[in-house]
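Annex B, item 7. Sequence and structure tokens for protein A, then protein B.
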Amino acid sequence: MEGRKDTKNLHRFPRILLRLIAGLPLSLLHRLGTVLGWAMYGISPTYRRHLRENLAHAGYREARLRRAAIAHAGQMLAETPAMWLRPQERVAALVSQVQGMAAVDAARAQGRALLFLTPHMGCFEVAAHYASQLVPITVLYRAPKIGWLEPLMREGRSRGGVRLVPANFQGVRELLAALKRREAAGFLPDQVPGAGEGEWAEFFGKLAYTATLAPKLAQREDVACFVAYAKRLPRGAGYAITIRPYPGILPDETPARLLNRALEELVRECPEQYLWGYNRYKTPRGAKPKPS
């Protein structure tokens, strides 16, 4: 019994700390995040290697852009407590600009469901909260590796019109049900899927194991698909959401490659805010090896 109390108290402290961090001004969080980003870059050789290699594969070799990417990765982490723990209306109010909403409104007027694909770019946490003000949205998630963080994440993300479901068979069923109700759905399309849930497709000139769920849903006539991200504005001024219609498929292009091309085009708009340190090109355990 005493051991359980100790564990509970051990988990309570980081929750209290995160709540204190969430109350800090956004400008200060971003300054602290810049320091955090450089700390991660300096401490982890693996993270440093992934960031540099992924930037190079995409054709970005400028030191200026690499420095900006390092800072923004840390800012993404530092702002997360504010996205999870501030009142939802305050989080949504941080969005000061939205580009591309006319196409979303037109799709809703036609009675179509909405599918938002938001890569690891900018502040993807704020995008779902903003969207939920317009229409209920079901969002797929993967449990974090740190066990005590999951209930806090679920609490922070599952608010108002946002419904969080796990990235498993049951979660996908719930997401499909939301689309059937002509609501909205969203998830991170550049997250490496599990074995059997993806196929190999080129991403910035290199084969990446790519989820097949998003391309399948995007092909449905009753679904209007968009790629989107929330750009982090300077000096803590909030976020600007950009929404782009999902492009049409090219001759001889696979649906998985179409997805990656759509994400590439989005990333090119603001490359410094993409999470280049993410191990996008790994091979999941049990997946078919990359074609030679």
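Protein B:
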Amino acid sequence: MQPIRVIQWTTGNIGRRSLHAILGRDDLELVGVYAHGADKVGQDAAELGGWPEPTGVTATNDIDELLALRPDACCYNPLWPSIDELVALLEAGVNVCTTAAWITGGKQTEADRARILEACDKGRTTIFGSGAHPGMTNLVGMALSGSCERVDSVVITESVDCSTYESAETQAAMGFSRPPETPGLAESVRRESEVFAESAAMMARAMGVELDRLTFDVEFTTASGDSDLGFMTIPAGTIGGVMGYHRGWVGDRNVVSVGFNWVMGEHTVPPKPLAHGHVIQVFGVPNMRTVLHCLPPADWTEPGFMGLGMIYTAMPVTNAVPYVVAAEPGIVTLADLPPITGRIRV
């Protein structure tokens, strides 16, 4: 079989991990790279993805140039999705696998979601979104539910110190370093994390129910001392901990909750102790519980563990490329595809 022709869209924290993985697979062929920053235009993909040998593929910010390459798929890894970019790719026959806050497209406006579906129909293409959380955690939760005679509810919590994620803009949007009395803060966090609600609805549907409504609740914890994280500071008295859940309801029963218990810095005691991983619980007959830990291999040489988290986020999407190319056109989720696996190397 011919390799699947792939373009990598952005080469930031997550994108460069995806790029590196594409270059290491014989069933995928890197044909193009989209550079968000002008300073990356013209650089070889090897430089941008940490690959040891030149590839001959150079980055561009010209979308038409990338579409002219007639790729089969795109690993799309900006922080937030651009509907215009997604439509351009899908209409041109490029299947999209993304980490950019997309599970079902449910947080988009009706008009924008309709544009995506029309583009999929026109290009006979598919869009799929995943990541670590939401994404892999939801897949594990659904798999655990397969061991139950009866499922009463599912609760998934990312329970971590997230100060290794060096994005001050993202962290501030989630409330960190801001005064707890900031007007509209809870609503801002709800909007920023709304993709968790998409994953809750996806899981409920996979387990046989349609949600009547979704709610969001959040609890903020202030820091008792100053923390300097290098890329941002958490002053004493500002928010150093955020615990929130997007909850799906059927009638008066909360059947699925997807959320986070996050801490930044050294001077915050969260309402619930950190599990330093993803806590996945299925309540029913029987109850099921597991905690996913992302740990370094013996040959890990990078300082710190931020890189591991970025790989953990990128790979559920990069590894999905062959499955998404083979899928029916439209929006697909983890509930629609076969189990996505990594590649054994020998």
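Comment on protein B: The two ends are 20 Å apart (CA to CA).
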